[in-house]
Amino acid sequence: MTVAETHELLASQSCTSLVPLPQLLHVQSYNPNALLDTYVPRSVLEKSGKPTNPALEDWIEIFRHSIGSFKQTAEADASRPQAERQRGADQFASTFLSMVNEIERQALERADSNGSIGCLELCRMREDALRAAGFSDIFLAIKQQENATALALLPDVCADLDQHTEQRMRWEAVLRGVFAGNIFDLGCAATTAAYHEGGIEFHATRDKLVERPWVIDDLDALLDRLCR
To answer: N- to C-terminal Cα distance for the chain?
Structure first.
């Protein structure tokens, strides 16, 4: 089957034919929102005796702080004329700031403890604000450039992994590479700043990963499962 035929087949299939990812242990209870129980006001966490850091206010501030870097990237979106992209970037910044401020205000007013708003919803709101301002993908040019860079690196990365003859060490090297790749995320203000100041290099990022134990560190259990 050719690539075109495969695309046609996938496009013709109804969404009802999709099945949950079989690797999920608990499909019905799975929620991609990490740390959802911390997306509640600090006062609520304090009253319930739970750790108060992070709290909703901290997450909101992270998204609020991201507005500047997203606005900067939108201003550089060459798919739109200069005047349009500047107006659109200003509109996005104003709209999304109002959205996160209102979410915080309502949550603090209700002292809501159900964690109904999480990272996933905030990311979707930010994307909605970008699209409402006329931007379809402010990261498209960056994706194309970095994909080409990644493909050029791939042979060396694979050769490096092949040098690990012990299965456990090889899997750990794979996972550290995944972490390094995940750090390259222009949804993060600090990473965006580093990118615009001179770029982010894969090997250097991987070498600078913090030493274990990590804040959430299930590496040994994962390696046990992968290597059994």
So the answer is: 35
CATH class of 32-132: mainly alpha
CB 188 within 8 A of CB 66: yes
Residues with Cβ within 8 Å of 63's Cβ and at least 6 positions away in sequence, in order, are: 96, 100, 122, 126
DSSP secondary structure letter of residue 209: P
How does pLDDT run across 12-53, given as a tens digit for each residue? Answer: 544 556 677 777 778 788 877 878 888 999 999 999 999 999
- Per DSSP, 16 falls in state G
Domain boundaries, the chain: 32-132, 140-227
Return the closest-CA partner of residue 88 out of 136, 125, 124. Answer: 136
Alpha helix segments (H runs only) across 76-138: 82-110, 119-132
